[in-house]
Every structure is written in structure tokens, then in C-alpha cells.
Amino acid sequence: LYMINNLSWSAEYNLFLNNEKTCHIDGWYSIKNNSNENFNNAKISLVSGKINFDKKPQVPLHTRMTKMATNSLVSSNTPNYFKTNEHYVFQLPNNIELPAKSKINYDFFTKKEIPYKKTYHISHSLQRYRKKSHNSENIPINIRIELKAKDLGDFQIPQGIFKTYETSNTAFTFIGSSPSSIYEDDDIIKL
To answer: For 157, which DSSP code?
Structure first.
């Protein structure tokens, strides 16, 4: 197991609100090679979590990559995973070609019929509205979507970007995007 410089990975999640109670999610991961080196037939593992090297402050490793030897090959590049004491390792089952200065995208996971909850938040102070004699302004309200990490899977959800869409018939309406932290088990994902 060893670290390689100038390689990074990131996660992106597309969340589709099917109705007022359930949604589905498509997770993707991207691997970016910023080096001048080609990695041919490379066995790659992605690390998510925090690791403490030599008692220095913990450093998030969601954007670090490791290269690891293994003999198992599977027909898709949906990663296998295992948990260590402090992080998760997502191991790509197939060797990949990663040319210099390139970026590749793969499916991470898909999950359907996930329960979610909407929470409404007033985003401004009501005090300024009470001072006016006739309150004809609309009060801005933000909507937050909440999901349980364990409803997405029994693995850690790596840090990434969540893009949320409402679905109606065959159309998708983009609602917004939110950066996310690392989530697992009983953590609540708040978007």
C-alpha cells in the first residue's frame, strides 16, 4: 500500500426527489491524474476518512489515492469496500487506464426508494418585519432535505457534492447543490 502524489478523487451524488416521502440517488466518483505519468493497468483504491500520520493533525484523505495490489477482478468498477479503524477503503475491482492529465468517472452506487424529510427554515430575522406598519414583503424560507446515511448503504458516504432535483413525469428540475461531509451509520445528511 503506498500513496501517489498528483492523483485525486472526488464524489458526486445526484439526488432525485420522487415524491414527498421518497427519493433515489446515483453516486459517482471521479479520478483525476494531474501528473505527467500514465498509469496503465493500474489497480486503484480510494480512501475516505481521516488518518493520523506521525501524530500530526488529522488530514482528510477523501482526495488522496492509494495504489494497492490485489488478485480479484470483477466485471464492473463499482468499488468493493472495507473498513479499517479510522477510514474506509474503496477498492476498484478492475484495473484501469489513467493517462497523464486526465479525469475518468465511474458509477459508485445507486439506491432507490430512500425515505427523506423536508425541513423549512426562515432565513431572515422576523424583527425587521415586525417594525413595518404593513408587511407586504414575502419572508424567505429555505427548504432542507434530510436523509439517514444508513439508508444509502452500510458503508461510509465520502465527502462530496450533492445535487438535488425534483422529478415530475420525465422532467427533472434542478433545486440546488450542497457540499457534504463524510457520513455513516446514524448520521443525518442535511442538504
So the answer is: B
